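User: Reviewer 2 asked us to show a designed sequence for the structure in our supplementary figure. I'm pasting the structure tokens here. Could you produce the per-position amino acids so we can include them in the response letter?
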């Protein structure tokens, strides 16, 4: 069985749990280690006891650099009781630095895979900071065996033009993860909740202040014909007044966190539309990504809303589904959605339902194929080692 050491920037991130499930469904054994954004260590993730590397803070990059330096000094002791892995996967740049230190602690020779699912604004700067970070990434990734990323726009707009990574690329989209056939009560229903009010669901990592203000203004203009339901983890570093802001808006509500995948069918069953717009890093990462909520919403037949000029918008245009905005203003939303009726919504939803479910989901076969690709990286290492001994 392939033994993978998975180094992550935040063990409490729901996306980490999803990747762990994917690797295990593919037949891998996982040792999970990483930082956390919680006051206390995480007890378990999918039955695993993570190796705790300490706390970090969202948006506090100086603190994160210090935490990485501290962890690098104690990495040998942290992994003293861990069997030598067959492969190391490093999620994000800071974990790539620790992956190389962990490799040394295990005696070197363990293949490293670099998983990069966002392009941070700091690495795109043209000043000394940006150039230093890109140089560090090229250096740390000089001998990685595989780059895993989630959007072709990341490759076209960053990795390829900047010449960051020479390794082969594996595109693993942020699709919903179906490990087995969905039970009957989890299938999308052809009829959504009664409308009006029309409900827009904004679920997942809530970090875009502009989206929040735009949706608030739009719902006020519509005087209750539209409501917005928010679920997930708000980034309080981006809007520390999040809860007060939402409570003050008559047609916005926050339903708290949810479990993925356990709660997905239920929360999407309560909305008509899925908000797939993010201005957090406008012109860069936000325009290039294909977010989790795109796939999750369509998987459960919510009609996606996106900006036409983004990678998400281009994806939806190719699929001929969704509501695409030409401008991110209350007037733009009024034009696109303001006159919504049952007939038009029925057509929009039917287009989503007509798409191949594989467009939105990975199944166990996809997991097996991914782990087989990872296993092949260790086979190459073994071949080289045998040839060297000969």
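Assistant: Here is a per-position design you can include in the supplement:
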């Amino acid at each position: 069985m392939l033994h993978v050491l998975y180094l992550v920037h935040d063990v409490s991130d729901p996306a980490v749990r999803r990747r762990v499930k994917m690797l295990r469904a593919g037949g891998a054994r996982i040792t999970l280690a990483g930082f956390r954004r919680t006051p206390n260590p995480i007890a378990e993730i999918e039955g695993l006891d993570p190796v705790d590397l300490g706390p970090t803070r969202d948006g506090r990059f100086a603190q994160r650099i210090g935490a990485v330096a501290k962890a690098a000094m104690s990495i040998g002791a942290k992994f003293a009781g861990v069997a030598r892995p067959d492969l190391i996967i490093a999620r994000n740049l800071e974990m790539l630095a620790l992956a190389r230190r962990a490799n040394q602690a295990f005696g070197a020779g363990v293949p490293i895979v670099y998983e990069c699912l966002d392009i941070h604004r700091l690495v795109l700067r043209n000043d000394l900071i940006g150039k230093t970070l890109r140089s560090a990434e090229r250096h740390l990734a000089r001998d990685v065996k595989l780059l895993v990323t989630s959007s072709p726009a990341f490759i076209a707009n960053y990795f390829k033009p900047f010449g960051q990574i020479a390794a082969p690329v594996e595109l693993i989209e942020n699709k919903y993860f179906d490990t087995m056939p969905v039970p009957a009560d989890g299938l999308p229903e052809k009829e959504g909740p009664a409308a009006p009010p029309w409900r827009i669901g904004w679920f997942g990592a809530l970090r875009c202040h502009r989206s929040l203000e735009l949706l608030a203004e739009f719902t006020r203009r519509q005087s209750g014909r539209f409501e917005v339901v928010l679920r997930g983890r708000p980034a309080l570093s981006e809007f520390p007044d999040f809860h007060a802001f939402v409570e003050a808006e008559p047609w916005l509500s926050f339903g708290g966190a949810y479990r993925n995948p356990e709660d997905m069918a239920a929360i999407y069953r309560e909305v008509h539309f899925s908000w797939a717009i993010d201005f957090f890093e406008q012109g860069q990462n936000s325009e290039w990504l294909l977010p989790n909520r795109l796939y999750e919403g369509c998987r459960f037949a919510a009609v996606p809303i996106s900006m036409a000029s983004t990678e998400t918008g281009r994806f939806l245009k190719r699929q001929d589904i969704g509501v695409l905005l030409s401008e991110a203003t209350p007037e733009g939303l009024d034009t696109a959605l303001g006159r919504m009726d049952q007939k038009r919504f029925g057509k929009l939803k039917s287009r989503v339902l007509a798409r191949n479910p594989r467009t939105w989901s990975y199944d166990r076969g996809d997991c097996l194929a991914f782990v087989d690709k990872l296993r092949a990286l260790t086979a190459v290492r073994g071949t080289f080692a045998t040839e060297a001994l000969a």
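For the response letter, you might also mention the following. The first helix runs from residue 14 to 25. The radius of gyration is 22 Å.
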